[in-house]
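Sample pair:
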Amino acid sequence: MFVATNRLKVKKGHGPELEGRFRHRGGVELETGFLGFEFWKLDKEAEHEEYLVVTHWESKEAHTRWTQSDSFRRAHSGPPADFILGHGEFSAYGVVFSSRPPASAGG
C-alpha cells in the first residue's frame, strides 16, 4: 500500500471554505488502485488552520497514474485560493504494516 499526503495551511477562519472544496472533489474515487481518502484538521490553536489530505493507494504506480489523469487535472484546475498560505507540503509513504481490530470486535 502507498499513502500520499499534502499538508495545507490556510488563513484563520477559512477552514470551512477549504473543507467545502474537498468535500465536493469528485473523480479520484473512480481511479484504478484508489483505496481511500481522508481529510484531517490539526487540533491545535495557531495563527492559521492546518489540514492534511491523505489518500491511500494500492501502489505508488496507481498514485502516479492518477497524477497524470484528466480527473487530477480537473480537481486541480481553476484559480488558486487566496486563503491558502504558501504551497502544499507533499509527502509519500510506503506502508510497512498496519493493524485493525478483528471484524467481530466492537459490534
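The longest strand covers residues 84-94.
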